[in-house]
Design goal:
The complex is a heterodimer of chains A (168) and B (127). With 168 residues, chain A is mainly alpha-helical. Chain A is built from 6 helices and no strands. In chain A, α3 runs antiparallel to α4. The model of chain B has no long low-confidence stretch (mean pLDDT 89). Classes of the chains: A mainly alpha (168), B alpha/beta (127). Chains A and B meet through α2, α3 and α4 of A and α1 of B. Chain A: Functions as a two-component phosphorelay mediators between cytokinin sensor histidine kinases and response regulators (B-type ARRs). Plays an important role in propagating cytokinin signal transduction.
Chain lengths: 168, 127
C-alpha cells in the first residue's frame, strides 16, 4: 500500500514537473516570437541559436553578455566625441560603424537601424540629427538588454530545447 | 567537410570585433568541423602567415585598424600565400578586394549559406 502511494505521488510529481516545463517552454517561445514581431531581433539571432548545443547550451547568452560589455566602451567613446565642438563626423562614423557591426552580429535589429540613421546624419554633417538618433539608439539598446535578460532567465528555467526554432 | 587528404579544413578569421571573431570561429568549428584561428587585424594575420602558419581559407574583414583587409590581402599574395581569401565587407562592392587578390567577396554578415557556397566552389574541398 505504501509502495503504491509512493509510486502514485512520484508519478504525479513527475507529471506536474513535465507540465511546468512544457508551460515554461511555451512561455519562452511566445516571448521569442514577440521579440521578432516587435522588431527587436532579426534572423541573425536564430543563426546564433543554431550554434548552441548540449556542450554549449548558453552560447547566445554568452555572446549577448560579451556584446553589452564591449559595446559600452564604444557608447562612451561616442558620448565623449559628441561633446566636442565642432563635431568630428568622421570619427563618429568610424566608431558607429564598429558598433553597428557588433549590434548586427547579435541580431539587434532596432539598434542597427538607429546606427544606420546616425551614420546618415554623419554623412550629411547634421549634428542635431546625430545627437537625436544617438539618444534613440541608447533607448533601443537599453530596452533590448532588458528584454533579453528576461528571455534568457526564462530560457534557463525552461531548460534546453532540442533545436533552435524559427518564429512564425 | 574536409580538405584533400581528409584533414580538417583550417581557417583564419580576421576581424577587429571580438564578438564577430567568436561567432565565426564557433560557426566554423561546430557547423563545418573546421579548425579555426582568429586574428584581430590585417597585420596580425600577415604576421601569423609569415611565421609559417598555413590556412586553407582566410575570412578577411575589410575595415580594421593598423592594417585593413584589402592591404592585408595584397601583402599575403605578395608573400606567396595561396590560401583561399574571402573578403567580408560592410558594402556590396568588393572589386578592390578581388583586385588585391581575394578569391571572393561577400557582404556582411558571414553566414552558413555563404560559407557553404565558398567551400563548394573550392576544388580542394570535398563534402
Amino acid at each position: 500500500m505504501h509502495s503504491n502511494s509512493f509510486h502514485c505521488s512520484l508519478s504525479l510529481s513527475l507529471y506536474s514537473s513535465t507540465m511546468d516545463r512544457a508551460h515554461s517552454r511555451r512561455h519562452v517561445a511566445s516571448m521569442k516570437q514577440s521579440l521578432f514581431d516587435q522588431g527587436y531581433l532579426d534572423e541573425q539571432f536564430i543563426q546564433l541559436e543554431e550554434l548552441q548545443d548540449e556542450a554549449n547550451p548558453n552560447f547566445v547568452e554568452e555572446i549577448v553578455t560579451l556584446y553589452y560589455r564591449d559595446s559600452s566602451r564604444l557608447i562612451s567613446n561616442l558620448e565623449n566625441t559628441l561633446e566636442r565642438k565642432p563635431l568630428d563626423f568622421n570619427k563618429l562614423d568610424t566608431i558607429m560603424h564598429q558598433f553597428k557591426g557588433s549590434s548586427s552580429s547579435i541580431g539587434a535589429k532596432k539598434v542597427k537601424a538607429e546606427c544606420t540613421l546616425f551614420r546618415e546624419y554623419c554623412s550629411a554633417g547634421n549634428a542635431e540629427g546625430c545627437r537625436r538618433s544617438f539618444q534613440q539608439m541608447k533607448k533601443e539598446y537599453a530596452a533590448l538588454r532588458k528584454k533579453l535578460e528576461t528571455y534568457f532567465h526564462l530560457a534557463r528555467q525552461a531548460g534546453p530545447l532540442e533545436t533552435a526554432f524559427r518564429p512564425k | 567537410m574536409t580538405a584533400m587528404g581528409n584533414n580538417k579544413i583550417s581557417a583564419l578569421i580576421v576581424d577587429d570585433d571580438s564578438i564577430i571573431r567568436k561567432i565565426h570561429k564557433t560557426m566554423l568549428e561546430r557547423l563545418f568541423n573546421m579548425e579555426a584561428r582568429t586574428a584581430k587585424d590585417g597585420k596580425e594575420a600577415v604576421d601569423l602567415c609569415r611565421s609559417g602558419a598555413k590556412f586553407d581559407v582566410i575570412f578577411m574583414d575589410r575595415e580594421m585598424p593598423i592594417m585593413d583587409g584589402v592591404e592585408a590581402t595584397k601583402e599575403l599574395r605578395a608573400m606567396g600565400v595561396k590560401s583561399m581569401i574571402v573578403g567580408i565587407s560592410a558594402s556590396a562592392s568588393g572589386e578592390d578586394f578581388v583586385a588585391a587578390g581575394s578569391n571572393h567577396c561577400f557582404e556582411k554578415p558571414l553566414d552558413l549559406a555563404k560559407v557553404e557556397l565558398v567551400l563548394g566552389l573550392h576544388p580542394n574541398f570535398s563534402t
